[in-house]
Amino acid sequence: MMGQDGTLAERAYAGIVEIINRDQLQVGDRLPSESRLADRFGISRTIVREALVRLAADGITEARRGAGSYVKSRPSERWGAHMSMSELSATLGTYEVRFVLEAEAARLAAMRRSPEQMAEINRALADLRTSLLSSDPAHDEDWALHRAIVKATANPAFLASFDLLHDEVDQILRAGVDISRSRPPEAIQTMMREHEIIVEAIRAGDADGAALAMRWHLTQGRKRLMP
After folding, report:
1. Angle between helical axes of 88-112 and 3-22 (0-180°, round to 10)
2. Which of 5, 121, 162, 213 could cysteine-pair with 150, CB 3.0–4.6 Å?
3. In the predicted model, is pLDDT for residue 120 greater than 50?
4. 3 state SS of 64
């Protein structure tokens, strides 16, 4: 979303999330119609529709043909400790880029990683395990592992592209660990196992397995940001 329309659509996105949270809408509940939302926000239905498309892409709402939009999942209220709801659209939007960039990076890393790069990935995995299974912050270690995998593509363009996402990904990693730690211990163990499966596939030179494992991890990561 670009320009003024992008700003309006992001405001509408945040406003709809606020309606879901404030009105305690549950999964399966119907959202107000596009025309009612447009009147409420003082914007065009086109902009509301753009916000709803973005919400559906992020798994928060779903459109039912001829029946409007419904709540599919509710963003965790713990998001508020990490960012304002106005940033939610842009931050979650990075997942679409990460699905493409990091899944392919994991595939190439499995094919190209040098012994030194594999050692760096192994060290990053060990550091993440230590941090995740303690009460220490783990977002820096999480970032370092993902970055080591991207670096192992031996393609500087992948690394430059990934580094551009740092601020948004950092917020996601902070929130993801915080939200997971508020849940039963299995949540953190599952997160750790997802990383281990990616690294195991890279170590084995399993390109397709590494790409699938990375995409699965990112898909589950986005789900963890919901209650």
Report:
1. 100
2. 162
3. yes
4. strand
